[in-house]
Protein 1
Amino acid sequence: MIGRIGAGIAILLSVLTFTSTVHATEIRKVVSDKGIVAWFVPDQSVPLITINFVFRGAGSATDPDGKEGLAEMSSALLDEGAGDIDSVDFQRRLEEIAAQMSFSAGRDHYSGRLRTLSVERDKAFDLLRLALTEPRFDEKPVERIRGQLIASLRQNAENPQRISGKTWSETVFSGHPYSRPASGTEQTLAAVSKVDLQSFVEKRFTRHRLVIGVVGDISEAELKQRLDRVFGDLPQTGPKFNIPEVRPSGAGKTVVIQKPIPQSVLIVGQAGIKREDPDWYAALLVTRIFGGGGLSSRLYEEVREKRGLAYSVYAYLSPMEKSALIVGGVATQNSRVGESLDVIQAEWDRLGKEGITDDELRDAKTYSNGSFPLRLASSRGIARLLVGMQISKLGIDYIKTRPSLINAVTLDDANRVARRLYDADKLTIVIVGEPEGISSTR
Amino acid sequence: MSVITRFCSIALHAFSLLTASAFFANDSHAVVFSPKSFELDNGLQVVVIQNDRAPIVMQMLWYRVGAADEEPGESGLAHFLEHLLFKGTKTTAPGEFSRTVSRIGGRDNAFTSYDFTAYFQRVAAHELETIMRLEADRMHNLVLTDEVVLPERDVVLEERRSRTDNSPAAQLREQVRRALYLNHPYGRPVIGWMSEIRKLTTEKALAFYRKHYSPSNAMLIIAGDVTLERVKDLAEKYYGPIPGRTVPQRVRPKEPPHRAARRVVLKNARVRLPAVSRTYLAPSYASGEKQNAHPLEVLAQVLGGGTTSRLYRKLVVERGIASGAGAWYRGDGLDYGEFGIYASPKAGGDIAALEKALFKELDAAIVEGFKAEDIKRAKKLITAQATYVRDGLRAGPNAIGQAFTQGQTIADVEAWPERIAAVTPEQVMKAAWTVFDDKNSVTSVLLPEVRK
């Protein structure tokens, strides 16, 4: 009884919350003299500056054939020497100012971030500029990083999570760039040359791919100058990489990778929904009810709470530039894999056929509207959001409009989308372990 | 390694593994989190860390009980009870706690280590009362039945398989702890041994709860967009009526003198990259030769804390025989601290040669000492964290909660940066000479099993 009343109040108040949150995180669009665009949230509460940026469509899916792992290898080398500064010196200078700089290659996008004490921003921004525009790729650090990446491949070679993820990508994206190993293989990493690294960066670090989010202790006028200095000399455009759209394959297929471990690791999933799809918000709420959001969901309740089958069980939407997936997962002792799969498939089927209830939808909405602002607690969270909003082409007022997009989802919408997306007959299942009584299809 | 959570995919897990010290640090202006605190009549300590950057609050409740407070034969009980605190009270149904938090748009979880058990939620600021009501309720009204306890025990067994039994490296870490501690309960796994988890019962969990869960054994920390007055009102209202209980003194078995260096080797066909490490028993901030704790923090950084550190520079950069190398210090334990060094070879490299090189570098470092500028840079790097940790809500409650449960005070947390800044090169070397005694150490080697 108390719970019900509480929920009603929460709906009302979550709107009010947003009003004040918007005030706290008012986003400005900043355009520098040279035309570099950044979304910016000024914040003097801590003397720090955080900048996140992305080169869209420059991720590991664009690795040349036979050079898989190139994007990741380059991302590990940008702070290993640039301009006149060699590798050891570059690392030392970063430490001297306690700046945090890192780069990473996702499948679709290539991203970087810098966090610095605002008093050290001169040096920090200059090191970032050098890393992006004049990376050296000297032989010694290249060989060292290559060795580390190969060592890391070996270290992870028998990790069941890694094996299941890799097998999953190979199965559902067979023949597509998404199927290739983002971290490469020992062979492809060995094939990467200094010229490959230079050419990779030159072709992809372009202004037309660039998206930037900045949070922190810096004035708008100064930020404009810094943006010009760091990013202004990057080439305007570069070649286009033609990654085709791909519909996930492998529906109805089960792949078992035998490994002598006591607990099997499973990935189950099927085609999902793109971020720009008009049904996105309905899908988000339905999937939250099904398998998301921490310590309560249908899967959590049925697999973990009622039956004690697993510690971790989940499902989430994975939208990509050229495809989309719903991915679920569980890890359970070998003798109970069959039972766990039965429960998950039954829930998957029930969701597709019967949909959700009004109560579930209402709770999912209050959860979604209430939890979204929690990511605004830190500069890093806000900066990630600023970049994500731009990649997904959301409006600069998205923080304000999002609750209305969530609240507009009706039960009919949700159930139509559940029917459209969730089809237990289309599941692809990957299992790593020694699952009892289950073998690969075909 | 030593902290385990109720739900694995949460980011918090990663940072809760860090030593308390990693969170607070300095620009030598003393204050870090500027907390305010008071105590209720029943003994509950309450701390408020105001931060009105976003309309969000975080509640953390820390209990001074962990795996090192379990009786022999009942390993895993503290962590199991943590799971069971989500299973309902006299007025809330099993699972209702998390469902309510979720419905109001919050996130909740909990974690257990040797010296503490902690529960937390993050919600919109106007929902603070809801989570304070719920958390206070389960401090004294827990109801457990076999119907909910037994499936949860299976969940914990699966958690153990995920964390430890599926991973040769994790199995080795468990063996290292067992070998490092000859007598103290820090040698047992927080999650428990498989055979002992299986024997945990509803009755044992309830007895442990009654023995240790009391306002007089806990600290409540509220961080975020809130005032001291508001927290006082709500704490009095919900936590105030809970009767204080006498809880047992935390007297754990002590270590006898260590007289022999130990070595553990794990061979497994699933190991593709060998590794070598050595862990030394060390003083902590709260026990042993405490004056060495801050210097050891600096030592870990300058010896093996990053890419410019001595071990990394020599073994990875200059000699090129290792893919990774470093050092760490865990100084937050109530009874003991630990200092570790480690290295992994390059693919196909010779692990025996690397082991020799690692210890040779360690000896050389102790003999030669460190350059003043290297120590200065290490201190700067550590103390800059004092600023970084203020960006967000979690670090303050974490640092203060860990201090409370591990024999330190709020003043220690706030003074930490100053104390790090004051560490001299001589103190670093003195700490190094003291800690690197082979008799106090376990050397561990992870090896591929070669089939003949």
Protein 2
Amino acid sequence: MPRNNDIKNVLVIGSGPIVIGQAAEFDYAGVQACRALKEEGVRVVLVNSNPATIMTDENIADKVYIEPLTVEAFEYIIKKERPDGMIASLGGQTGLNLAMQLHEKGILNKYNVKLLGTKIDAINNAEDRELFKALMLKIGEPVPESTTVSSLEEAKKFAEKIGFPLIIRPAFTLGGSGGGIASNQQEFEEIVHSGLLRSPISQVLVEKSIAGYKEIEYEVMRDANDTCIAICNMENIDPIGIHTGDSFVVAPSQTLTNKEYQMLRTSALKIIKALKIEGGCNVQYALDTKSEQYYVIEVNPRVSRSSALASKATGYPIAKVTTKIAMGYYLHELPNAITHKTVAAFEPALDYVVTKIPKWPFDKFAQGDRLLGTKMKATGEIMAIGRTFESSFKKAVTSMEDKNTGLVRRKYMQLSDDELKALLHVQDDRRIFRVAEALTRRISVDEINQITKIDKWFIYKIKSLVDFEQRLKGEILTPELYLEAKEKGFLDTEIAVFAKKRLADVKKLREEAGINASFKIVDTCAAEFEAQTPYYYSTYNEFDENKVNKEEKSILILGSGPIRIGQGIEFDYCSVHAAWSVRDNGYKSLIVNSNPETLSTDFDVADKLYFEPMNIENIMNIIKSENPAGVMVQFGGQTAINLAGKLHEQGVNIIGTSIESINIAEDRKLFEKLLRDLNIPQPQGRAVRKVEEAIKAYEELGFPLLVRPSYVIGGRGMQVVYNKDELLTYFNSALKFSDEHPVLIDQYIEGQEVELDAISDGDNILIPGITEHIERAGIHSGDSMAIYPTQNVSESIKSRLVDYCEKIARALKVKGLMNIQFVIKDDIAYVIEVNPRASRTVPIMSKVTGIPMVEIGINACLGLSIPEQGYKTGLAQETSLVCVKVPVFSFQKLNRIDPALAPEMKSTGEVLGIDTNFDNALLKGFLAAGYTFPERRGDVMLSLNDNTKPDGVEIARSLADLGYRIVATTGTHNFLKQYGINSREIQHFDIEKMQEHMKKGQLCFIINTPTTNANSARVGSQNRGFLIRTISEMYSTPCFTSTDTANAYLRALKYFVSRPELTYDSIDVYRKKKTLAEV
Amino acid sequence: MAKLLLQNGMIFEGASIGAEGTAYGEICFNTSMAGYQEILTDPSYAEQVIVMTYPEIGNYGINPDDFECSRVNARGFIIKNYCEHESHYKSSMSLSDYLKKSCIVGISGIDTRYLTTVIRESGAMNCVVTTGEITDEIRENLKNYRMSKDVALNVSRKRTDYFKNKGGVRLAVIDVGIKKSIIDNLSALGCDLTVFPGDVSAKEILNGKFDAVFISNGPGDPQDAEKTINTVKNLVGKIPMFGICLGYQILCIVLGAKTYKLKYGHRGANHPVINLENNKVLITSQNHGYATLPETLPANVIPTYKNLNDQTLEGFKCPEYKIEAVQFHPEAAPGPADANMILKSWVEGLKNEKTHKKENIFKKIFALKK
């Protein structure tokens, strides 16, 4: 059927902020959708609260609303934009839930908005556990014995009947939040309770546990003509029991016979036919390892993380085709985007193996609970492509960007066999490495299989890699052995270590033997048809399919690897824009990245995509093959910057800011000297490597001090210390994770934090804007709420900031983007950090100022001065739109993490509230971030540390004015009493009572400032504040850990109570309002 | 060590995973990601050397349930990465042991993707696989090698077999290289099967008073299957017929259409075909090196299926003679079972006709009695 011509104006829902379980994959999906719609000549209206996305760029949709994803906002926008259609299946669970609400509230009907693609009934049938179960029974597809309950009592009854272990899954939550496996009554009650709380419809599914079964997924698609295809199947290396988002996954399945493969495929197609899905869909299975018994675990009636992975794994653009199906097309009417000769109605044939490994935040949250279960904990993921499982798996491990790329890890070597075996039972992120260690000993594959339930196929494969390490250790490194190692995916650095050779010698051997990586194409058809896809991966000892036109100049852009805390989607935004701008400058754009969720790894973005680990060797392979004019390192976050030095050493041309300047900005000593020479104030600091030096430093600088390791991502390991004990403890533990770089100790200036983003061509500097943080310095900028334009910074300070920025940019000859962070205290602006690269705020600043930062930066790098590009220099005219960035956290997914804001970054995403005045923008920011404003004036608990007790007085008064009752812990209670403020005392140690309070939903919110560095494990477990904060997360009670955030919230609350009429406009309109204001 | 020499002179070297020896055949590639056991034993691969494009092979070993025939029919087996340690609860043997036992040369460690592009670009050609050296004699032999004209009869059974299903539709099955799955499928649909060798005579079939004839898949150039073509010619119009793959091609020839050799054939589990009557798409399992020229179809033949990749004809029906046939494999094995319903609806049709006939007879008897 040709496209539905009635549809001319379509609303696309984004997925909101990045949280665990919902990351960049929906930006990728959303952008593909918008482009597919535009191809059809459809007007696209896009709404997303996440400003770091590419989809919220104005060239992606016709109208871009960066507004809260709420029913109110959508009704307003629908009323205004009058879309004929809406697509719900591309915005993750958030988009789906929102679409359901809009339908239920009758808004879609009222405004005649047609839900395109998968329909409401289909969504309901797939999402509602009971309806789904009934449908499966009807069509004869097996589901595990289960029941849907709305109360603990019902759940208990079922548990009595079935027995443990049981799996609990709350309905309608992302990434299985609030679910888990219970093996006893206590665990069961806890999980059911929290699941009922988390589920927006207070419903959980309790089901028989089939832990240990193989976990297999199918990405399938259906069109309205009932054509169904299976795009890809995937096998989890980790069996059922670990959330698929937290599992090591391979595509296609490796251990299934054709019969099993087809049995599940047939089932999946039967299910989507019964559900009448129109578009992409994901079906998850549990398959017995000893029979053909299988169970349908779950169906996601939408584009998902798995479909992004499947798209990258096969080259089949699932989101794009889903959109075309939503527009009425049939699969056989759509061309295959890769071959152009065949149609989209086919099933990709892979001739390589894909491995996915999740990226967990445990390197940042050392004290976090690393156990994996049904609740997803990973923030992102990496994917690797290899011609064999071995090379794919090795590449995947390399892509994790750990310091250690090997499978056998030193930390497990000291364990006794018994200890090791005991630890093999532990399902956490590092189990695969313990499996590797076990394989080096006389622990049999069978035994490992019995303990871990990982299929022997995978264990044997890992064993072959571990055994090969032994060969490298024992045998003479001949060219043949070397080549075999390369085929298996070993890095030169690893080979050097195993063979006890210098890296240079290994490289020499490689050169003499003439061994080079070759590149193969991902073409969806296993070479059956000719394809020109610019999508490559490396291999060894095989024919090179890479066609490089030596006449054309190219530039390689380094991507940012997996989404992690501190390095998120914003760098994908930058990488994608960089690719586009490089092309606009007449170069071929090449991108290398390892993250399957992103748009940068869509083969449609750059002229050529290399799906490879972000490792120096892999990148040098590309450079050797392509011989690009240069490499762009400033858009891929710290991952790319960390590679700059190594690339430079190999003689690679780094385009933009020089490596020397990057070093000056990153090296404390050089940086201090630079600021001193430029006469720019800075907190006094020392770089120390020994305890004695640390002691000397504090004697000279005094407390409080900010301590951190050098070369960091997102302030990892950063802390404020107030006394000698804390300093020494930090210092002793910090050295463990950074022995090659010193620890940095700086004076901690508790002032107002301000940051600016700038573009420089070396001489001319353009500053799109300055942002002001709501929280005082000491809280990581990524976790701070931020306002643009500044509301409380004087003109004189601003001109000083601009002056400092210009001085620094010129001194460092910055070419491209830079970001500077300041702290202002007593009218002195101290520079605390200079990042000579794209920063987290680039997407926001580009959007709110209308200044395309990446584009100007690239042009500047490639020789076009800023004035030549038609831009003025200096600080750009401030707009009269006001925006507030609000960070979003994923603590609910992570156990034992202190939610208190600290110098170390903890947020996973952000939203932006935009309006014409601060109050509206602030309120929108909070709403978009998911905060609610309780209608009922209940209790608010205050528990403040000594530093912030004075702030508490004002807060308490405001609360009382608003009609809230204050509950305070003893110290705070007594302090407030002195100021004549009444509060109900709650014993500080009476955690149970507080919990009871939260359980009953009596606490509206909590303000709890941490006493000391509660984010360190040492004090964390005993610290009561820590307990209060984590319990509040458990019960979804908002907890503010900075009085600044609390004040902002109170301001928004007061404003909310006044019932303001919020209006919603597209970003271009807000900017036009600015011009009107100017006129 | 084992080597592959292509007719165009290219040599590929890898490790031997099968038997010692030398074998000649036509090289072809299959893009299925699973199902190597079914592929190896499919009689349609007789006198062919198979290249698997999926690189990890041998993963689940060989099991007693997935044979398409009691022996390996391919001449050689070429893969990228052989799995030394298979893992599956059903596995009774490793792939390597099976190849050795079956005296089939197997080579691993080949850049199968490159080899596939060579086949794709140069077209189907003969080749030799050997665990020895490539001697002048071998080169000479390769030059002179031709696939035997009787390849289909060679893999056909020599004696008639019966798969009883009392009261079911009675089918005469002509085996020109039949896969076990077809027999299983038809049996499961309740058919009573008499499976004849490929050189069965029309007379024998007509004497058997069958409800219909089924012509199987099989290897080789359809035009070489002269004996079977003759038999089928004498059945046209006398009994309903259904053909799969080679059976389809034979029916095409019998009805007057022309077949031709495809450049490199269709072999895989992902081929989309469209039903020209209802516009529905099926993903099918395919394995054929020849196709039918649609423009040579006589007027009484209606095309029913078309391949969406290269637009080649994939099925037809001839209502006048009650003949239907498809180029692809509704029995799958390996591959998707989307097209299963084609066999089912054909058998249902026969069943209905049978009941109808019976009813008519009863009616007649009833009328006579009256």
